[in-house]
Design a protein that fits this description.
Helices cover 34% and strands 27% of the residues. The strands form 3 sheets. Strands 1, 2, 8, 9, 10, 11, 17 and 18 form an 8-stranded mixed beta sheet that branches. The protein has an 8-stranded mixed beta sheet with strand order 5-6-4-13-14-15-12-16, sandwiched between helices. A two-stranded antiparallel ribbon has the order 3-7. It binds flavin-adenine dinucleotide.
């Protein structure tokens, strides 16, 4: 690389902390580090022109778990572990809202809804029968009733006649949230270099040598926040999980408002700008979706369109305007991995499907390892 003396001195020398990845975790980590070490020189390296993983691609649900998910978690976790997961998500959401402000991220408390397919009668009945038990359990966090039952007022078709409502779930504008985080990071004097992929990290005694696809340099500490791409830097316990999404054109008099979970959370949709944003279907072929490659498949897209016309908008004509995908980081356990890997290398990865909720907190926890 043909760096000048000035370029080298200003951007690439005496770096205290290098963060790999500018998603919610990387940016939140950078802000926390600057708060703790105001004089530190912090550099973020991001391989995309924009952040290019999940943080700018997601559905913007400000959620902490549907009733069926909590019941399911209680089958494999102790009560205390399950509560801790919910507490973390809720605390993370509060932190995100406090850091950026509800107006800035367009937080709207429109409630969350869990819908059940006609085939899911047994699960629906299990949820109804355990609703009070779970509400009692959640009192320690919310001090109030979280889940109630409501009739199908949005006129969805081919689902159970009632659904569960979560009064503590809301929605945000994902783009606004990420724009605000990026602005905050830049205002704090933290540098971001885009279109720069970290290819290797070599731990030396008192520093770390970082290879990128553009240049090589060294930093005192490195913090990896690459989530679904973590395996590429040698972190074995994180698997990529692609999620496909589509959005309709604006729909006149759209009557649907809220965030909706369908079929045990494998599908999710919401209103935004008089449109329906709809994603999911990873369960149709888990193996094919275990990839870091962006893209869409015929299988998933056909199913999304089928559910859209048969369940969500059965009496409304609509056009699909745009489709995209994002890459999540998942693993056998639901907890994120926040740890020190070697002398000077740390990671905060494996955010699963709720990184909007826990991302700020995981970024903070990652910085607090130092
Ligand atoms: C379609 C979709 C819908 C979702 N919906 C929701 C939702 O409604 N609510 C919710 O709470 N969560 C949701 N999530 C999950 C949430 O978006 C993620 O958990 C969260 O954004 C993860 O943030 P992160 O910073 O850990 O990872 P990311 O945002 O993926 O950031 C990692 C960054 O690292 C960069 N990177 C990777 N490798 C390298 C490298 N070698 N060198 C340099 N840079 C690198 C990537 O380009 C990326 O920008 C959804 C995810 C997807 C994909």
């Amino acid at each position: 690389m043909n760096f000048s003396y000035w370029e080298y001195k200003t951007w690439l020398s005496n770096i205290d902390f290098t963060i790999v990845g500018s998603g919610i975790v990387g940016l939140s980590c950078a802000l926390r580090l600057k708060q703790k070490f105001p004089a530190a020189k912090i550099l973020i390296l991001e391989r995309g022109i924009l952040p290019n993983g999940a943080s700018t691609k997601n559905a913007g649900f400000a959620c902490f778990g549907s009733l069926s998910e909590i019941i399911d978690d209680l089958k494999s976790h102790t009560e205390q572990e399950a509560l801790q997961l919910i507490q973390k998500r809720y605390t993370g959401l509060q932190l995100l809202r406090k850091t950026l402000g509800d107006q800035v991220i367009n937080y709207l408390p429109h409630y969350g809804y869990e819908l059940f397919t006609l085939d899911d009668q047994t699960l629906f009945e299990e949820c109804i029968s355990k609703k009070e038990e779970i509400n009692t359990l959640l009192k320690s966090i919310f001090k109030d009733t979280v889940f109630t039952v409501q009739n199908n007022i949005f006129n969805f078709k081919n689902i159970q006649p009632q659904y569960l409502v979560n009064q503590y779930e809301g929605q945000i504008d994902t783009g606004k949230m990420m724009e605000a985080l990026l602005n905050k990071v830049q205002e704090a004097g933290i540098k971001i270099l885009n279109s720069c992929t970290v290819t290797a990290i070599q731990n030396l005694n008192t520093s770390v040598k970082i290879n990128t696809d553009q240049f090589t340099f060294s930093s005192n500490k490195v913090l990896i926040a690459t989530n679904g791409f973590a395996e590429q830097l040698g972190l074995q316990k994180v698997k990529p999980a692609r999620a496909q999404v589509l959005i309709t054109q604006p729909i006149k008099d759209l009557h649907i408002k809220g965030t909706f979970h369908l079929d045990k959370g494998y599908y999710y949709f919401r209103n935004i700008d008089n449109r329906i944003l709809f994603g999911g279907g990873r369960n149709l072929d888990f193996k094919a979706e275990e990839t870091t490659n962006f893209g869409q498949t015929q299988l998933v897209q056909t199913q999304l369109e089928k559910i859209l016309s048969e369940v969500i908008l059965p009496d409304t004509s609509f056009e699909i305007e745009h489709r995209w995908s994002g890459i999540m980081g998942v693993g056998q356990k639901k907890e994120a991995v926040v740890k020190q890997i070697s002398n000077n290398v740390y990671c905060g990865v494996r955010l699963g499907g709720m990184g909007v909720a826990i991302g700020s907190l995981i970024g903070t926890e990652l910085a607090d390892l130092l």
